[in-house]
Amino acid sequence: MAAALRRALSAAVAVALLAAPSASADSWLYEKFTTDGHVRADYNAQGQQVTSLILDRQSGGAFYSRQKYLYGVFSIQMKLIHGNSAGTVTSFYLTSGDGPGHDEIDLFIRSFRRHADLPYPGGKPMSVHATLWDGSFWATRQGEVKVDWAAAPFVVSYRGYSADACTPDGEGRPLRCPTGTDRWMSRQLDAAEWGTVAWARKNYMHYNYCEDGWRFPQGFPAECSRN
Predict the structure, then answer these.
(1) How many domains does the chain have?
(2) Percentage of the chain surpassing pLDDT 70?
(3) Are 200 and 109 in contact (CB under 8 A)?
(4) Contact 70, 94 (CB under 8 A)
(5) Do residues 94 and 126 make contact, with C-beta atoms less than 8 angstroms apart?
(6) Is the dihedral angle over the CA atoms 142, 148, 152, 157 positive or is it negative?
(7) What are phi and psi of 210, to 5 degrees?
(8) Which domain holds residue 125?
(9) What's residue 152's pLDDT?
(10) What backbone torsions phi and psi does residue 159 show, to the nearest 5 degrees?
(11) Where a domain ends, among 155, 171, 186?
(12) Does 74 share its domain with 142?
């Protein structure tokens, strides 16, 4: 009887251990973000939490942070759509909103220097966004290249999100900053990091708005000649 009870308890513990990751797989996502559309949270074979955005004919997907930030370091790993992804747009960025004059920082392969005579993100708190949507009208010259819906659903996966950043208090002042802010507040890219940026541009950058004359027939934005 005692042996049978031990076997039953061992089996119950094993089941509980196997079930635990699935039960808590969405905690990282839903604790820090609000979701919209097709979003899935799961664990991969290595036991790492993965959040996926899914695009089909009915809807895309997005998640955006509950917290807003003013300054900081943000990081995430993304696995992009395999194969032909023409017309789909996925991103990871900071934005203060959608209206005219909003601030936005797209977190890819670029270091933007501040110039006194050029627009630059100011004191508007921004939230972290990740999106996947049918952007063929925007991305392929008013839909010149259509999304291949036969290949749907399209999936982009994210893991390893971290934010080491200052958050606004009340109306944006004062700031609440993590300990050791000086390690990144005035940091500049070193030679090796500039080399990584150049490598990424050469091998992975397929679009640069500073080369898109179709989008800017009256001339490129002023920063294009500076950076």
Answers:
(1) 2
(2) 85
(3) yes
(4) no
(5) yes
(6) negative
(7) -75, 0
(8) 24-186
(9) 95
(10) -155, 165
(11) 186
(12) yes
If you ran DSSP here, which 8-state letter would residue 98 be given? Answer: S
Q: Give the separation between CA 114 and CA 111, rounded to whole angstroms.
A: 10
Tokens standing for 198?
A: 């150049």
The span from the CA of 110 to the CA of 38, in Å, is: 29
> What is the residue type of 194?
W
What pLDDT is attached to residue 209?
85
Nearest-angstrom CA–CA distance, 107 and 94: 8
Regarding whether 115 and 161 lie in a shared domain, the answer is yes
Q: Spell out the residues 6+ positions from residue 208 whose beta carbon is closer than 8 angstroms to its own.
A: none
Q: Which amino acid is at 21?
A: P
Could you give the CA distance from residue 57 to residue 152 in angstroms, rounded to a whole number? 8
Question: Taking every pair of C-alpha atoms in the chain, what is the biggest distance, in angstroms?
Answer: 85
Alpha helices in 25-68 (DSSP H): 27-32
Average predicted confidence (pLDDT) for the chain: 82
Please tell me whether residue 150 adopts helix, strand or coil conformation: helix
In degrees and rounded to multiples of 5, residue 155 shows phi and psi of -130, 130
Q: Which structure tokens are listed for 79? A: 């696995």
Name residue, tokens 């696995």. Answer: 79
Residue 10 pLDDT > 50? no
Q: Which two tokens stand for residue 29?
A: 């996502």
The residue written with tokens 């759509």 in the block is 81
